[in-house]
């Protein structure tokens, strides 16, 4: 962005000077993009903007390239940042990394091995340590401006440009087409490599040699911009995420957009990239429920929505707020998405590890999405501000009023219940001194990071995940296979009928048919028959009751009716140590608490059959057990009831 279009102002923040950018609100109101109208003029399902959309964008797009921050020679800006606490802290971190060498390129043999095995540990840390150091060197040189970091910056840039492929190796095809130079593709790693080099060239200017700058611009053009716009015009094998509903779309789009707006000297390309990004984000936002539910879980909400909000802030800054993706085409849905985390927590920092989600909120990693959600969606502002990428740090310096670290209520009282009625997910929270709670989901089997888990649940006693969903297998070869027992319904606390598991696809779903929410009792009834391709099955109903009186009691009933006798069983999944007391009683032993599990049946006798989950690398890092509870004989109708009761006194 032309620096003259920025108005620098110095503000006081805890006695320290920071800089922010002020834009003309009146100009934005005069000529803002109507996103709803814009999307109506898309060329079918094409991501590349239509002729009408291009005309609409011309009225709001600047003619010049974008800069995330002023160039290094703007000493008024950078010297003011350098004296702030965050500026000093950033410089100190860069100095601590000063003597470390880049860890790329990795050898072709390691790349091929990682591609074959899906083992991220042998390359991913090297990639991200390299990029993190280079980011720190770039901004530190801008802060200090004495050339100390330039040799290392040159070394790191050259190392990245020497990489045959910027992809995570396991994102290349099985024949390593990107490594071999047969095609070019953008993934979660490539967009970051591109973004870091784009920042270096844009911010450092003449601090880099003309030869180096020219080569950087050339590589960014063919590795990122050309690849991105080509895929947006005609769908190909390279960037299939452009119409995806998962975090890949927003993350990769943010990198492609940053690179193109910063690096491309072609105004038509920059306009096309913005237009494509807006069309693409329609698909990303559609992946959330109308209720704001993120089926990818809390970790991927932070990762994906983080980058969506980065796109929104970048386009707002670039166009003087003429493009508003904070509201996009559905302000109420965006508000619910922004408030998702505080409604998804079960208790004490614990959340449901459904799909590939995390089981606990963390005090590490970026919370950029939470900070911007507090601003634009009135979500809780975190008590600390954490950033992982240089572009986030720059935005924090440009908008100190958003990143002050002054939290809203940091310990809000959680609701008794949360009902995500679009996706069919209920959190029923116990309010005992030792809270006993459950999250249970209907959902469908084409959700992002799907686990074929219609009807799954997780029971939490205090901070222990005492029983239920065991979460995701670690990402390596075979982890995404539907036959992986931690990903299929075999590894979830749901029924198995005639030895058949749940089927995969949008049609295989659960439907919540009844809810009752009271202070001392919650009840959820769901029809989960559609999740199974079992012709003999006439009905299958799962009922959850959370009796919150006393120390609590959670009951799961599975009732089925079939046209002829079928084998039927359910599973108690757990990481806990267990003791089978008798044919109807099991004790689950968590880290500090214990729960009694009572098994009851109607229609026939059941057998309890424990077996280990044969998956070596589970995200939770523990060995899981599947305790099968199966009718001994086939039945036409039957019911299995599992009753969980805490044993520990408060």
TrEMBL record:
Membrane-crossing segments per the record: none
Superkingdom of this protein's organism: Bacteria
Record's keyword terms, sorted: Signal
InterPro entries: Chondroitin_lyas (IPR008929)
Keyword Signal tagged: yes
SUPFAM superfamilies (UniProt xref): Chondroitin AC/alginate lyase (SSF48230)
Residues making up the signal peptide according to the UniProt record: 1-28
Protein's recorded name: Heparinase II/III-like protein
Species for this entry: Mariniflexile ostreae
Lineage: Bacteria, Pseudomonadati, Bacteroidota, Flavobacteriia, Flavobacteriales
